[in-house]
Amino acid sequence: AGATVLLLARREARLRGVAARVEAEGGRAVVIPADLSDPASVDLAAEVVRSVAPVLAGVVSNAGRSVRRRALDGAPRADLERLLAVNVTGPARLMLALRPALVAGSVVVNVSSVSARHVGAPRWGAYQGSKAAFDLWVQAAVAEWPGVRGASVYLPLVRTPMIAPTRAYRFLPALSAAEAAEVVTLPFVRRVTRVAPWWLPGVEVAGIVCPGVLARGLAWAERVEARLERRR
């Protein structure tokens, strides 16, 4: 309550819905439509942010686009370029433009994925690679900004429309959107630099100690899912 929240995303109607909920809780919300795949749109959004809030207490980067295809399936290059623009270059451009507003005590939270922390999974190369790339970029950039604290949030599955096309995910445990949002706020109330499910360190160790076993397990899961898809 009482906070001013700047909401930036592509779909203005949905932003206004979120803004209404913020204001119903006693806060103030500013809607800033922007397309992270369009550099001009990113620059304009950053200009609006700086005019409204010359100093930012924190930034949450939650941009994400998923393209699930085999690397050799001939996916249009435009799909890959848009994914990288939304997941990497667009958010990086925005973060750099907002750097003057980040002061000592500001917090930068990058919402990443557990998939950015384990070995490559079939059909997820573009998504995994882009999430891992931006996560490391943010960590390195924030390390150069005196007094600014960074945190990475590695979310597991979240029950949103983005995972709906993957049939196997219907049978796996997943956070609700509300639960995920609560997790994302943790770096603002605790001085943590990493938030992750309890089981992620084990997966990371497995990726170092026995990467082949983990890769074979992911490949097996991919084959099982492919059979399920053929039965649809």
From TrEMBL:
Q: Which Gene3D superfamilies match?
A: NAD(P)-binding Rossmann-like Domain
Q: Which GO terms describe its molecular function?
A: oxidoreductase activity
Any coiled-coil regions, as ranges: none
Cellular component (GO) terms are: membrane
Query: Which superkingdom heads the taxonomic lineage of this protein's source?
Result: Bacteria
| Record's keyword terms, sorted | Oxidoreductase
Question: Which family, according to the similarity comment?
Answer: Belongs to the short-chain dehydrogenases/reductases (SDR) family.
What name does UniProt use for this protein?
A: SDR family NAD(P)-dependent oxidoreductase
Q: Which organism is it from?
A: Deinococcus xianganensis
